[in-house]
Amino acid sequence: MINATDILVNDTGTLVNNSASKKISRELHYIAHISILLFALIGNIWLIHSIVKKRRKRRRNKDISGKFIANLAVCNLTLVLSSSPVDIAEIEIGYFPFGSIGCHILHPLSTIAVISMSLALILLALERFVAVLYPFKYFKLQKFQLGVVVISHLISFSIVFPYGWTLHIVNINGRPYCEESWSEKSSSLYSIILFAVEYGIPLPIICVLYFMIWKKLNSNNRAKIKRSFNSFLTYSENETAQTDDGQKQNFFSVRKFSCITECEKVFRERTKHTLALLRLFIAIVVVFAIFMLPNQITWLYVASTGLQVNNEWTTVAYWLTYTSSVLNPVIYGTNQKFPKLIHKLQRSFSRHTFR
Predict the structure, then answer these.
(1) What is the rounded distance in angstroms from the CA atom of residue 218 to the CA atom of residue 286?
(2) Tell me: the pLDDT tens digits for 62-113?
(3) What are phi and psi of 170, to 5 degrees?
(4) What integer is the mean pLDDT of 321-347?
(5) Which of 135 and 238 is assigned the larger pLDDT?
(6) Residues in a beta bridge with 172
(7) With contact defined as beta carbons under 8 Å apart, do 162 and 245 qualify?
(8) Most confidently predicted of 61-70, 253-262, 341-350
(9) Residue 60's Cα: distance from chain center in Å?
(10) 3-state secondary structure string, the chain?
(11) CB neighbours (10 Å) of residue 85?
């Protein structure tokens, strides 16, 4: 068990060995937290600004994915703003300086942000799933968009409320610390619930949705390339039937060669765009899976065993969680091109098939 005189409760509720934190230099803590905070602010504010700017250019705003991405950016900002400054203050002062109200608000707020971020990633995957597999129902999502986002935040709040309720200030050697006050069994059960909501359930849902999206796009590409080839071939045969008998075979061969060449161009172009989407989907899943996993494992281990965890590992695990808030705007800023890529796929097929 962790000695009560050496514990702090960090921004997501995990017990951390305060005496071991000195093994990582204060300068490195500052550099890491300030870098994460700076890049997260720049990236997510830029992302929100670009979405708002894009919305103003349109008279009728139907940018559904943009609103979901903006919601994710807000979650990212909430996470880093409620975590990094608090961590820096605790490192500098050596105790929790924000009082009882701060104890009940700051730590739960960062946990709410993590849950909301996971739910936002599910909403984005679901939005893309509907756009590809049910395009005629896509814009109907606009009616429910705000309600779905609000419900996701209410779910996050309701899950974190018991954790915030149990937090309280404990004075140890004359210094205040923000700690939980429930039984070990309840703490373990709650940690499992948080793991399921933040990681265990969202990850497979996101993986399945993006796999089905890519599978559908790939299937559509193959079917449209085949139709394009048949269209060219039919056109060539019709043109051949109108020529003289002496020129018939030669004309058909030329048209067939032209058909194959054009179909190869269609295939290369559509494959290029499909692979671009696949790379985006892989990046989304990998960043979520890798950067969120260490913190989840650490949290479950500490809560279930009550054993002390190497603080270097704990610190790096939380840095990785914060880093996801830096990488998300990069990935989803690029992923705003998703509708354009879909449009290019449709336009390239139409151009080569019906010209």
Answers:
(1) 21
(2) 667 788 889 999 999 999 999 889 888 888 888 899 988 999 999 899 999 9
(3) -120, 130
(4) 68
(5) 135
(6) 175
(7) no
(8) 61-70
(9) 27
(10) CCCHHHEEECCCCCEEECHHHHHCCHHHHHHHHHHHHHHHHHHHHHHHHHHHHHHHCCCCCCCHHHHHHHHHHHHHHHHHHHHHHHHHHHHHHCCCCCHHHHHHHHHHHHHHHHHHHHHHHHHHHHHHHHHHHCHHHHHHHHHHHHHHHHHHHHHHHHHHHHHHHHCEEEEECCEEEEECCCCHHHHHHHHHHHHHHHHHCHHHHHHHHHHHHHHHHHHHHHHHHHHHHHHHHHHHHHHHHCCCCCCHHHHHHHHHHHHHHHHHHHHHHHHHHHHHHHHHHHHHHHHHHHHHHHHHHHHHHHHHHCCCCCHHHHHHHHHHHHHHHHHHHHHHHHHHHHHHHHHHHHHHHHHHHHC
(11) 16
| Token pair in block for residue 90 | 């605790």
Both tokens assigned to 71: 């919601």
Q: Which residue type does 257 have?
A: F
Length of the chain: 355
